[in-house]
Amino acid sequence: MERRLVRRRGQRLPRRGGRADDAHRRVPVVHGALPHARDAARRRRLGAPGRDQHRGPRGGRRARHRGHHPARGHPAARRRQRGLHRRRDALRPQRRAAPLPRRSGAVVRLTSRSLRRYHGALGRPSGAVGRSSVERSGLLLTLVDDEGHTGRGEASPLPGHSTETLAAVTQALIDVIPRLGEAQDDVAETLRRFPSLDALPSARCAVEVALLDLWGQRRGVSVAALVGFDALRLACNAQPGALVDEDIGERCAAAVARGFGVLKLKAGSIDFTEERKTLEALRARFPGVTWRLDVNGAWTLDEARRRLDALDGLGVQYVEQPCEGAEVFSLGERAVPWAADEALIDPIARQRFLEDQDARRGCAAAVLKPMALGWLAAREAALAAGALGLGVVVTHLLDGPVALAAACELARSLPGAWACGLDRHAGLDAWPEVAVPQAEGAWVRRAEGAGLGLGALG
Predict the structure, then answer these.
(1) In this structure, are residues 163 and 345 in contact, taking their beta carbons and an 8 Å threshold?
(2) Is 94 within the bounds of a domain?
(3) Cys-Cys link to 39, which of 34, 126, 173, 206 (CB 3.0-4.6 A)?
(4) Parent domain of 27
(5) Count of domains for the chain
(6) In this predicted model, what pLDDT tens digit does every residue of 275-305 receive, in sequence order?
(7) CA atoms within 13 A on the CB side of 406
(8) Does residue 97 fall inside a structural domain?
């Protein structure tokens, strides 16, 4: 007759061949369930506790709570332990918010729509080597719904970098705003009504972000949670300056003192040998730092190949846009990997990058600017790049505070995103002073408020 073990509710069986104590005694039974009375009698003969009771520490009998087992402790203690686990989990990065339906078919009625221009001088020149900006302009789009929620978006194309002009963006938004009387909770579906914005990514970004901000406030969640992923915090890289700056060592020291572990330096001057020596000295001075270089396409294709190999051994994570535009797709495998930035602005080049394995060979990461691509297009490209095993870095286009908050929400919405480039920057000087709650030094964090979490903007 074959025998097997029967596990009582809440009881763990010992491993095969292991010793069992009285509370885990092996009970031989015949195939099939025994009647309750015979089962209880057999248990008593074998010395195992009954179904509804077991012996206490002093030999007396006490009622058995449902699910209580001697090896597991009292249910109340287990509940307290589970509560402890929950408290510990609260200290860990919370990755995902409660799932929200993105396409519930809900429609919001907009009662007010306005467009305002901002213009101002930057506190300090900013930009790549040989390309600087001293002033910045942008548009603020404000949408108010029938419940009084206010959504804001920003359009700030950067001359010499963006594919559109501020004048073209202004005219496009003036044409679109009167027709934006209602908006669906599927923001992408709403934008399909305005194909004129397809060629104007910064204008499209403004409308997308304003609607996402509005829907986030209506549902009481952040923009990142609204699209389905809500990282508690994300590391941020600092941008102390260029390798040719005389005080670059002091700037790097200040960034490290603020808690930054990733530093991005501008490169691409005429004297590459001096830049390499400076980087070598900085690496020796700050051994725990991860280094990124941004050339902004200043090298030729041949120079990029030679210099990427020459940087081997200096701890460089990647060199961003080492040569102009789509030329980076011809770099191939080098000693130091490269990252694509400006090459991804053009939709056709971006599609080639994502579909052609040869174009991505040697690439470490995709650097994405929502103001240059559009917010939803940047997120779509980021998810596609991440699925291909590439790193994803979200950064800015010297935007204002609304665009910076939107970029922070984009970065937090991406699973496995690399340290982003969303520290406070000179472009904010052209706008009224407003706190961006997500941008807190070396980290991008979840804001307290819903939507973008921004306060009043003067």
Answers:
(1) yes
(2) no
(3) 34
(4) 1-50
(5) 3
(6) 999 999 999 999 999 999 999 999 999 999 9
(7) 36
(8) no
